[in-house]
Target: Metal ABC transporter substrate-binding protein
Amino acid sequence: MRRHRCRICYLEWEPFPLSTGASPMYARRRSLAAHRTPLPAAPVVIAGVAVALLALTGCASSDKAPVADSTKALKVVTSTNVWASVVSAVGGDKVNVSAVLSDPSADPHSFEATPAVVLDLSKADLILVNGGGYDDWALTTIASLPAAPPVLNAVDLSGLDTGEGFNEHVFYDLDSVELIANKVAAELSALAPADGPTFTANATAFTAGLTALKTRAAAVGADHPGTKAIATEPVAGYLLADIGLQDVTPAGFSQAVEADAEVSVKDLADTKNLLSTKSAALLFNNIQTSGPVTDELVAAAKAAGAGVIGVTETLPAGITGYTVWIAGTVDAVSAALNA
Model:
């Protein structure tokens, strides 16, 4: 490939593909508990990508974020398609939303940004990340940009206590999602004031749907008071609380998950015992991180007649709306408890 030399800084570089449609590479699939230890993109790789980006943009840099072109749809980039669905609900046809991660079989925690992802982020008018250690690769990449656009961090905006034991999967927390939706509307309105009323109206409609979901979830719990559940990971923990389920996952099992350690034979046996004795009526299983331990728990749950609720960290194929996605999980819980 022919090399190029910048006329300003004399840096030599090779062009890289600009297409953002290429499938990203994933460093690895995590083990059962690896989500508590995110793997940020390698600094050397990010530095190299930043240099290439400088070359592509004529080696120019600025201390100011780019100003949106009011004649075009605003470009918003999110770390996952879950957050993209929230932005789409608020922005409507006034925004062009793209998600870095949308593969249902992918692990959002161990992703490493490609040059195409860096370029896509650099062209955004607004970026929405989850935060809380969930998608540190995004924050690392954004920090490498010569001129970063405004960034919304969902965990920071949620106002939740991020101390010991914090569950970073705030996209399952309906209250937090409502806060983020309203903040997205405010940011989009600042970027495109003429469309502000549209963004506000869309956010109002979206949050009304969230309120209806909260009522629906609470009704399921009210019909089955005191129901106990086990979770292979705390992915949907906030939704369990909204439904009114009691998470009785043994402490040893949860601690092993938190520490990214092997689950002991005793802790696994204690967890399976809750299912076989019908002490726990439900098992929430993150289907994006399957392995021998989760497979064993799923088998135990089915043998005991317990309901198995599959949860994901990205929207499954064919699901484009956030409320539709959450409603599907609530309905699955209801169906399992009424079976």
